[in-house]
Amino acid sequence: MPTDIVMPQMGESIFEGTITKWLKKPGDKVQRDEPLFEISTDKVDAEIPAPAAGILQDIKVAEGATVQVNTVVGTISSEGESSAVKPAPPSPPASAKKEAAPAKPPAPVVESKPVAQSSQDEAEADHARSSPLVRKIAREHNVNLAQVSGTGLGGRITKQDITAFLERSPSSPAASTAPAPVPIAKLGGAAPLAPAFIPGDLVPMTQMRKIIAQRMIESRRTSAHVHCMFEVDFTHIVQIRNRNKSGFEKRNGARLTFMPFFARAVIITLQQFPIVNASIEGDSIRYHRNVNLGIAVALDWGLIVPVLKNAGELNFLGLQRGISDLGERARGKKLKPEEVEGSTFTITNPGQFGAVFGLPIINQPNSAILGVGGITKSPVVLTDDDGNDSIAIRSLVHLTLGYDHRLIDGAVADQFMAQLKKTLENWSEEVG
Fold this sequence. Notes:
By secondary structure, the chain is α+β, with helices and mostly antiparallel strands. About 25% of the residues lie in helices and about 25% in strands.
């Protein structure tokens, strides 16, 4: 029996998706869980894996078509079946939307795997400091969680911790093939962020670009945007990073970038100014219990803001791993819809492309966004305790706070930035 390929339900609030690219053509062999096609929704772009191994028999929904979730978009036949391979349907015009009749997805196949037995004391300890997902990963890879260092609150082991452990382990197949984490300052690389085109062409927007355009206009119409900019002497942190980056990578299997410094300083400052981490709901103010940090990632095909949930519960190493993990999976189209929802404050980094500063648009429903400019060396006048001036070369960065004046007053915004500047210039935390 052929296996139906369906448009997946990528979140409770998502009802349709656009097929942007088929990665296989009819007649190609496919393996179960191998990337089969790419989709775009109003939340996230993602690669969809094959539900079964076999031959891609036919493609029912062409690239560019938008259909409801659970719609059958193609079929896979087993290699032994003699069903004739059907050619893919022609791609529709950019403005057309082809919809197929919804169908129920195939029942999930549940695979049972042996679970390694451990003593009751070890099991209770592992249960107390890890999540069900972490314990599942540990069982599948036969990992003793006592060997994994936790970066969560109270030493709790996070998904990023065990993933990093597996990548460093010589016995792990992923250790030799998994790419090294990419620092947030390098996300997007040197590749052009706009697709190639011929001058004079009229090129339809991608689904992601349509969504970005819509949300930027909505944010401008919703929030009373105001910006303030502070210059920060970043010399101390540059020196800390230079001293620690080699040892940090050897100990933790992750590169030491500047973004976790900004993230940690933002978290500390938000805890002192909870109004900046709040949002407007009707005529009320929602003060959020946690800091859910959105980190804007520039992609070759657009922009996305994955969210580091409960960022205040992570130490410095946890922040570095979490930021790198989200950035890598954003570039690989591996994010889930819930990982781009629920932010309470956002950081964007135009400085990675050489910008001195930016005036970012607020990521709704946040009330503020921090823009990080490039780190540059400049001559600065320094005054000692006796009032004597001298000139020195210092590493400077310009930070811009975009905030919603409906909720945040200018004085509060300036106080927030002054405290953030002080935290960064007087950095005292260990980097791990």
